[in-house]
Amino acid sequence: MYGLLLQSAIEIIRAKYGQEVWEQIKSTLHLDLNSVSAFHQYGETLFVRIAKLLGELRNEPISDLMDTFGIEFVSYISNYGYDRVLRILGHNMRDFLNGLDNLHEYMRYTYPRMRPPSFYVEKENAHGLTLHYRSRRRGFVHYVIGQITEVGRRFYDTNVQIDIVSEREEFDITHVVFELKFENTAYVKQSTTDKDSNELDLAIDCHIFFELFPFHMVISEALEIISAGDSLTQLFPNIVGELIRDIFNLVRPIITLNWSQIVLHSNNVFEFSTIEPLRKQPNENDLEINDARQQHDSELLLTMTGHRDVHEEYLRLRGQMLYVHEWKAIIYLATPVLENLDAMFNTGLFINDLSMHDSSRDLVLAGTQQSAELKLALDQEKQKSKALEDSMKKLDAEMKKTDLLLYQMIPKKIADRLRSGEKAASLCETFESCTILFSDVVGFTTICASLTPMEVVSILNEMYTKFDKCLETHNCYKVETIGDAYMLASGVPERARNHASEIIDMAFDMLDSIVTVTNPTNNEKLKIRIGCHSGPVVAGIAGIKMPRYCLFGDTVTTANKLEQTSRALHIHVTDSTYQLLDRKTYDVQERPKMTINGALTVTTYFILNKKDRSGKIIVRPFQAVLIDMKRQDAEEAKIKQSMNLKNANIQNIVQPVPKENGIIQPPQTQNDTNFMPIESNTIPTPAIIHKDVDPTAHFVQRSLIKPKLADEQSLKAAESIIEQNNSSKLFHRPHRSRACDLL
């Protein structure tokens, strides 16, 4: 199959369904077709496979698609000037259909390896006719119907209705009978003219007739050759008396070679080729083609289907079959098919063997004189075609790069709408529900203070590259990045019901990715905090230079606020996002209510874990880092509490305060409710407290509050320290006050 048919189908798919559908078809069929040449041959089944896949993708019947392809093909070939060939086939639709089988004959020089179908007409009447269609290809029945109806409408202003009467397979040939209904005024006019015409009775000697056609054959009803031309008998001396099927193969039309079929197809061109070559010699082209087929067996889809072509060493005859009533026989008026002098040398013919009344001699001589120029032009055309194909491949690669870059900046859906000519203002859209995610690096300002600018850029690039790879497995859109802040959205611009779960799953992957990035100064793992919120937003294109797809609304502000109040390696969500999640899938921890935007109080949650279908918690890499971080925080808290406890114990030791009456009031603790001073000789003495004792000492004693400890062991240790301090206080108190000495 030549690429002209494929070209038309590809252009129709691109124009009607878009470049995206064609790229999907190429990817599914594994086609490496950056450009299709009209004069190159491709696989016989490729066209039908493309149509079937398109029908599956668009959910359309393949018969309707093939009919559309046939209709649009008639318009497409006008680019090559073939519409003029269709116009000159006849005065009306009847003439076109009677000469339809010969249409491909006029194009055999442009497409020498063409395998055309066969058509013939029968049962004509004033309201239409019956058309027989035979082809070695399967699946093109509705394609032919579309072509015929469009030719009738476009060129002959005739509305043709086509019905399929029968369709059957005859060996490797598809035979379809069509019933065409149209106003067949030409048939009515010819029938009237035939009745009124006067027949002329002119006799001619058969020898004179045979001399005019040196390659003729007279065939009996048994298909026996009873007479042959002089030039033909020179090549086959014993041809008379032989059956035509024993010497020749019927190339076209595609029919069974018998008497009745030949009579029915008297309006068709008959082409025969000899069964045996006139001069046996190897053909270099055959060897090259066979080698190429052996080397490229894996590319049968894009290569020509193998079949035996009729080469120059075989004699080829082309002509018309006419039934002669007086002879009760069929005469075949033929001429040999000779493209150049080499063909004549290979078949053993000479110029004087050809008849003078036709153009066979002129074609052979003119073809020989122009063969060198044509060969040079053909070689140049092939080089140009190859260069053009290479350029198309490069252009296609660059276009893919451009599209990829554009789709990274703007969502594909929005970019395609901009390409189609829509204005940016018309792309503004309201989304009733979506989920926004914000994240930033904990302590990023402190980290940057100890790094060079290049190291900061390197860390951010590594972090964002890992995040971007996570996006490939989630239905999320990356809105923008500002410094260490990373903003995502799900449900925009493609609406989705599970946008909340998509964002949470993406957040877990981000946490797993961030713990693989380290600070080069101390090799500590970076940590991020994440905040999410669900609600309505307004989205659209902002700006002309470096345009961006931006989101606006309170949902964005709330998500940013949730991120600022989150913790390291935690996912902080609002109640609106929590309500959209599956409670059986995620483990959550409720947080205290917080105030947003100065007045709104909302309930927030930490998303802790995700469960699989069996209900087991999925262990993720970042959780090990989170456990270590909590352990370190607990140890630091213990150390800090111990230090605070020691400082408090030291402050509890208060020096004695002298009083105006000469009595020294010893310091007391909260436990010293019945304090009694102890003499050095251990004789107890009652405590003497003056009524004017300054209460400051008691205030200091009661203000010392025992610190709260995190666990029981710390509490016991603290109590033992306090007891030691109390004992030391008792030991260092004065043996006796001055008042006692005086007494």
From TrEMBL:
Residues 371-398 form a coiled coil. The keyword Nucleotide-binding applies. It comes from the Eukaryota. It is found in: Cytoplasm. Its EC number is 4.6.1.2. Its main location: cytoplasm. One of its GO terms (cellular component) is guanylate cyclase complex, soluble. Gene3D superfamilies: 6.10.250.780, H-NOX domain, Haem NO binding associated domain, Nucleotide cyclase. Keywords: cGMP biosynthesis, Coiled coil, Cytoplasm, GTP-binding, Lyase, Nucleotide-binding. One of its GO terms (molecular function) is heme binding. It holds the Pfam family HNOBA. Residues 435-563 form the Guanylate cyclase domain. One of its GO terms (biological process) is nitric oxide-cGMP-mediated signaling. Signal peptide: none annotated. This is guanylate cyclase. It comes from Rotaria sordida. The lineage of its organism: Eukaryota, Metazoa, Spiralia, Gnathifera, Rotifera.
